[in-house]
Amino acid sequence: MSKIILTGDRPTGRLHLGHFVGSLRRRVELQNSGGFEKIYIMIADAQALTDNADNPEKIRQNIIEVALDYLSVGIDPEKSVIFIQSQIPQLTELTFYYMNLVTVSRLQRNPTVKSEILLRNFETSIPVGFFTYPISQASDITAFKATTVPAGEDQEPMIEQAREIVRKFNSVYGDTLVEPSILLPDNKACLRLPGTDGKAKMSKSLGNCIYLADTPEDVKKKVMSMYTDPDHIRVEDPGKIEGNTVFTYLDAFCTDEDFAEFLPDYSCLDELKEHYKKGGLGDVKVKKFLLNVINKQLEPIRVRRKEYEQNIPLVYDILKKGTQEAYQVAQQTLDEVKAAMKINYFDDQELIKGQSEKYKEK
Ligand code: TRP
């Protein structure tokens, strides 16, 4: 079976390093690997509106930000289809039919929905659209017959729910949809990159992000004030690695070549960690190294972003072309879904003939 990727992001802000190590970097590798028949990358504006209904301008502004981030990390519109979710009405239509296959209690058990309800203080005032977004996400994935969804760990319950919907649909209406699997980062530090404050997740609402579009000065400020080991007070003190955000970031980003280039006293991260644990290695030295490592990754991204920023109409054109292509593919799947569900009345000559026969006999 051919392998197809679908993945996406909500346009609620610029993309940050958590997105980068959790999924973006992987997407570019997969795109360039040639191992996939098609790659769809979706700007999930309709999903973003499920909890931003009163702020459409924010979503509108961030569509271009996310598109610029995609293009600047190396997503190539010649190889990947970038599109905007809300412009594909077939996705909404699929969602409406899938809703019949999912129970309220199953949605309430979805761990991501559960934790987001807590995070946003929704309690019982949760919008129905937000509550049901896992179903809409199943539509996003299945409309493109995606086999593979590269995403961060937080998306695991969404993919599981999509798989259940596929199985249910296929068992009720016959084999139509494809069961997707999630492709998680293989490096543990990349599964869920903590914020610069050491909090569990890098998140815009917590204000603890390093953005892909940050200037070197922004990144410097953020890295130099990063959370480390609060008990590591003097340079001589032994330091802890676990829960030390600077080391988690190094786990996610640095390579042995980075040591040769920026910190040749050490050959690899394990050596640096050993010294830190023993004592005698100050936070500032480690932070300066991390700063170099991050800036080395971000520099080419900044350069490409600048180029695209000078040509915004081109970016909209890329989005429009991608959206037109995605529209056709989603329509094809919707036709198959409606045929399977027997709601294709006007396309079904057999139906019309059968009904005619039925009445002729009388
Ligand atoms: N829920 C994803 C996020 O918050 C965005 C998204 C929407 C998505 N539909 C998707 C991701 C389909 C993967 C596949 O970032």
Please provide a written account of the structure.
The chain has 362 residues and is mainly alpha-helical. It folds into 2 domains: 4-192 and 312-354, HUPs (Rossmann fold, 3-Layer(aba) Sandwich); 216-308, Tyrosyl-Transfer RNA Synthetase (Orthogonal Bundle). It has helices at residues 17-33, 45-49, 56-73, 89-98, 104-109, 111-119, 128-131, 133-143, 156-173, 188-191, 216-224, 245-253, 256-262, 269-278, 283-309, 312-340, 349-360; strands at residues 4-9, 38-43, 81-84, 148-150, 181-183. The strands form 2 sheets. Strands 1-2-3 form a 3-stranded parallel β-sheet. A two-stranded parallel ribbon has the order 4-5. The protein starts with a strand and ends with a helix. The mean pLDDT is 94. The structure holds tryptophan. Residues 6-10, 44, 47, 137, 140-141, 149, 151, 155 line the site of tryptophan. Residues 6-10, 44, 47, 137, 140-141, 149, 151, 155 line the site of tryptophan (TRP).
Mean pLDDT value: 94
Share of helical residues = 55-70%
As a percent range, the share of strand residues is: 5-15%
- Helix/strand structural class: mainly alpha
Distance between the termini: 49 Å
Outline, from the CA principal axes? elongated
Q: Which ligands occur here?
A: tryptophan
SSE string: EHEHHEHHHHHEHEHHHHHHHH
CATH architecture of the largest domain: 3-Layer(aba) Sandwich
